[in-house]
Specification:
This protein has about 170 residues and is mostly helical. It has a domain of about 80 residues.
Length: about 170
Amino acid sequence: MKYVKKDKYKSLAEQLEAVSDWGANIRHIHNPSEAVQLQAVSEWGWAIQFINNPSEEVQLHAVSKSGQVIKYISSPSEAVQLQAVAQCGYSITHIDNPSEEVQLHAVSKSGQVIKYISSPSEAVQLKSVEKCGDFIQYIQNPSEKVLDFLYRNHRGIFNAYFQEIEKSKKEVI
């Protein structure tokens, strides 16, 4: 891994070589071209944190390497959000007000991320418990359809869920 001094490499070829060695070298390149940006994030997705106003293409490349880098993207498009959660379901924790489609993709990748979704729709709840019935514990107000699914497919989890609710009620009294 070579480190680059600020503005050491002026030519496009030198810049591409520098970011190919280590994507974070982009932070030392003044006003990098889109080609240099793409090479940097292809090498290391986290390099996006050093890029001002990256294009959607650069954003997509970065989140396809590491979904969590979406936290460095201001106002990511729906396509960028979907790519991020496809790469890592936990990326949803860095998305403000994700759409139902983004939520569905996130829980499809990692069902337990439902615990980070406030007021998930019935479809999102169902997708999560289809992955693993135990994820019911992360849903505050499961829908009747979700509870019916648990009853039909995971009777033990269904019974444990209601035993836990009854236990909580007794502790309050």
